Amino acid sequence: MRKKFLLLISLLTVIGLIGCGSPTKILNSLPTANFVFDPLEPEVNQDVSFNASGSNDAEDGLNLAARWDFNGDGEWEIDYSNGKRVIDSVTYTYQSESEFSVILEVRDSMNETDRYSKIISVRSNANTAPHATFTFSSNDVYIGETVTFDASSSNDAEDGQNLAARWDFNGDGVWEIDYAIGKKIGDQVTYIYDNPGNYTVILEVKDSFGAVDIVSHEIIIKDGAQVSIAGFVVDSRGGVGIQGATFTLSDETGKIFTSTSDGNGSFSFNVYPRIYQLNITKDGYATSKVQDLYLDKHSYDNLDIPLREEFYHDWSSESPTIKVFNLEETLSGLILFQIEGISDIGIKIIDIRVGHNGYQPDYSFTDTNYCEVEIDTNLLPNGANFIKINMYDVNYNYVETYIPIIIENSEENIELTRPEIFELVAFTFGQSLKLFSEEEIILSDNGIKNNKGLSKILEFAKDYDTTIATTLEWDWDFDAEGYKIYRSFFENGYYELIATTFGSFFVDTSAVLEPGQEVYYRVSAYNKGIESELSDPVYTIPLEPFNVSLISPAKEAIITTPTPTFEWRNSQLVGENQSYYLIAQGVTDGFRSMEGWVDDSILVDYNGIPLEDDKEYEWDIVYAEAFTIYSQYSFAVSTSGQDIGSINGWFRFRTNFE
User: Fold this and answer.
1) pLDDT tens, residue by residue, 543-583
2) Nearest 5°: phi and psi at 518?
3) Which pLDDT band, with edges at 50, 70 and 90, does 239 fall under?
4) pLDDT tens-digit readout, 274-316
5) Rounded distance between C-alpha atoms, residue 210 and residue 61, angstroms
6) Contact criterion met (CB below 8 Å) for 550 and 564
7) Continuous segment of H or E residues that includes residue 455
8) Terminal Cα-to-Cα distance of the chain (whole angstroms)
9) What does the alpha-carbon distance between residue 481 and residue 411 come to, in Å, rounded to a whole number?
10) SS3 sequence, 195-240?
């Protein structure tokens, strides 16, 4: 039995050996190494690029590891441990002139290798170093001003102006603009200094061979260059100031300044000259914005920015953005340009004013995001000027921007007559008119004493509000293309140009106008490059506001006398003289029982058509004004209430004479 078992084992072993045969051998092709380099005739200190993507392997393709010996000294400058593949370009810089053997070794996934070598001839460096030079925009620089640096005059014999540039603006060894940013010498760069002092500005330029040149200049930054920006935020154009509005002023560097309006709606900032954006916000209100507000070395203190209550709180509260196309800085002749308002909810109003911030826009468009404007610059004076654009969207979000322009037209040899102001009137209303969103004031034929300028204000005010306004008129010169209006708050002080206009009438609704403050105006005529002498100054003083309240006969009173006394009161006594226009009439009558002016008194006895017994009547002061005459050319008027009469009338009363 034992012998049979051993025989079986032997037999199975032989069968197994026959069945297994020889072990299978895995076949692998050797990789092939190859490379090229550029440039073919490099110079000392010039970067040479090596590319091994011409290598290959039957099994692994380009998935081959690579190592490099760039000078044939047996040292691998780039070894396998660096993780380079044949598809990775590498660079090397030779420090001396000679012929070098460059060796590439590639390795596949089975650790099979191949080597390839080439001789590279490195020539002596015939490269000329570049020449660095630069200029900057001004030698009179203050803190906060933007300085422009220009290195475009730098050059190189081989590379021309194809030179890299880096900048150190304060000499502290830190490159504010380094090579990695990719600036060339043809790229102007800017910098803003926040502290006074002497700074060393360093420019380094580099050519394609890596050669560099450095130049430096000293720049002196002066202190005390802050300017003020101030103005008012109002519920409408020239209207009531809004307290508690938040102002956010941001510049191109990302700095942000904030302020809050006071009880008069006024605000102010002391900042450095540059371009800003001003945003105004308040809960429950739409948003207002001044876009691209450029502050130079002079203060800007005459911003009147409307901030309206939002139309619908679920709509966007983001101010529109203004875009302008085809408008150059220097203009002559007829100019056609385009304006677009960017808004998610649509633009309601686009207004354009040329050379002034007056009440009436020169061009106005409604219910459109886009408009074209044609300006005849021959009607404008030569020299610096501006175009003001403002927009409201349908939720009363607001934006305005001032675009500086220069008018250059051929001059004409015309002698212009100096204009003279023959009427200057200051109007004060007891309440904001709210004419932007509410019904217009309608003047009845009440024989209003000083209605000339007032009716013009109301005509111009159809789309806006006002509380205080001045109107001025001057004589007309047929040779004049237009007029410039100047304003000052001191007779012999600085007169600021506030507007240019083509007519001989102007309305000033600026929020800088205040009751009790003298304001002076002068006017000149212009025709292209010619401007006449200024007119003599004429001043007025806006009066304080006041309101009239009816007293007697009281509302629903019973009158027992046919000659009742009408009495009213003023919220305060204003002006040298006061006039009141009183109307009394039967409630169902189609005529007035009594009407007329009452001067310098707050009561009057009934003197009209006899009153009938047991009849209902009504009465009111429909117009009340206080006025002061300053000269034959100037006076001031203050009118009561939003509807230029009493704030609590009409009062009804009934007669009972028994």
Assistant:
1) 988 889 999 999 999 999 999 999 999 988 999 999 999 99
2) -65, 140
3) low
4) 788 999 999 999 999 999 887 765 555 567 788 888 888 889 9
5) 36
6) no
7) helix 451-460
8) 161
9) 12
10) CCEEEEEEEEEECCCCCEEEEEEEEEEECCCCEEEEEEEECCCCCC
The whole-number pLDDT of residue 257 equals 86
CA distance 343 to 367: 12
Query: In whole angstroms, what is the distance from residue 587 CA to residue 618 CA?
Result: 6
N residues, the chain: 658
Q: Is the pTM higher than 0.70?
A: no
Report the SS3 class of residue 136: strand
232 within 8 A of 300, measured Cβ to Cβ = no
Return the CA Rg of the chain: 43
The fraction of the chain above a pLDDT of 90, given in percent, is 55
State how far the Cα of 570 lies from the Cα of 648, in Å rounded to an integer.
Answer: 12
pLDDT of 355-414, one tens digit each?
876 667 889 999 999 999 999 888 888 888 889 999 999 999 999 998 989 988 887 777
Using DSSP bridges, classify how beta strands 557-559 and 651-655 pair: parallel, antiparallel or unpaired. parallel
Under DSSP, the state recorded for 101 is E
**Residue type (1 letter), 62:** L
The residue type at 350: I
Give the Cα separation of 89 and 613 in Å (integer): 113
Question: Which residues touch 4 (CB under 8 Å, ≥6 apart)?
Answer: none
Q: Specify the DSSP class assigned to residue 537.
A: P
Residue with tokens 């008069």: 264
Instruction: Return the residue matching tokens 């880096």.
Output: 166
Longest dimension (CA), the chain: 162
Residue that has been written with the tokens 């390839």 in this structure: 116
Cβ count near 233 (within 10 Å)? 26
Bridge partners, 488 (sequence order): 520
What pLDDT shows up at residue 460? 39
What is the reported pLDDT for 6?
Answer: 38
Q: How far apart are CA 426 and CA 543, in angstroms?
A: 8
Question: Could you give the CA distance from residue 294 to residue 296 in angstroms, rounded to a whole number?
Answer: 6
Tokens of 114: 């191949």
Amino acid at 603: L
